[in-house]
Design a protein that fits this description.
With about 270 residues, this protein is an alpha+beta fold. It has a seven-stranded mixed barrel. Strands 3-4 form a two-stranded antiparallel sheet. The chain is about 25% helix and about 30% strand.
Length: about 270
Amino acid sequence: MASVWSGYLTFGLISMPVRLFSGARSSGISFNMLHRDDLQRVKQQYYCPADNRVVERSEIVKGYEFRKDEYIVIEPEEIKKIEPQTAKTMEILEFVKAVEVDPVYFESSYYMLPEEAGRRPYALLTKAMEESDFVAIAKLTMHNREYTVFLRPHEGGMMLHTMYYEEEVRKVEGFGAPDVELKDAEVKVAHQLIEALAAEWDPKKYHDNFQENLKKLIETKLEGGKVVEIEKPKKLAPVVDLMAALKQSLAEMEGKKKPAAPASKAAGGKKARG
């Protein structure tokens, strides 16, 4: 796997060479755009209305619109000239308690690996952060943007998460605790329902059912079979009696978690001897 960034992580007077690798990416079945009449893939082209013709990619430049329909051209080498120091050096600015960071600020995840010369300071910083429950705030430049990032220890190594800036985090009017009065008994049963659904975190358990259904759909059509519609869940009526709904939900959850009776007892007798 190719690294997406390489440079130096600095911590006071300590500097260590590191590389970043993508930590996660979405995956799924992709479709091509076809012409329905002959099932040929259609091509995307760039059209210039002034010349009344299709232009090649080599003829295209990046431009910034400073006034309506007026642009200045920005060349790649000009962007290179104005790259800040964070293009190759990632300086830790401060440390903050991990519990104080709202997950809404996390954007993309990356694995940070040290080069050979940086293994010892990398291990030292990781261990110190693990024991202190701090995350580091740093800055780096990649993909034509300067990011503020979080560094946090994970499984003995260091993860980097790019951060949304305050102005990028949206506020939704009316978001917050609804102005309603809750009964103590309702809260108690809600706690019991949560406990009934409690489990150990295991990401292997979670799958994209829609993608699995798409794979089955493709296999069915390749084999000439008939596509069967999946049964949709019934639309639930609005809850009128909240306590009754909580109790019924709790009873169903507890019923699902009850262990099945042994086969011999369920049959109601001992095995016959031959």
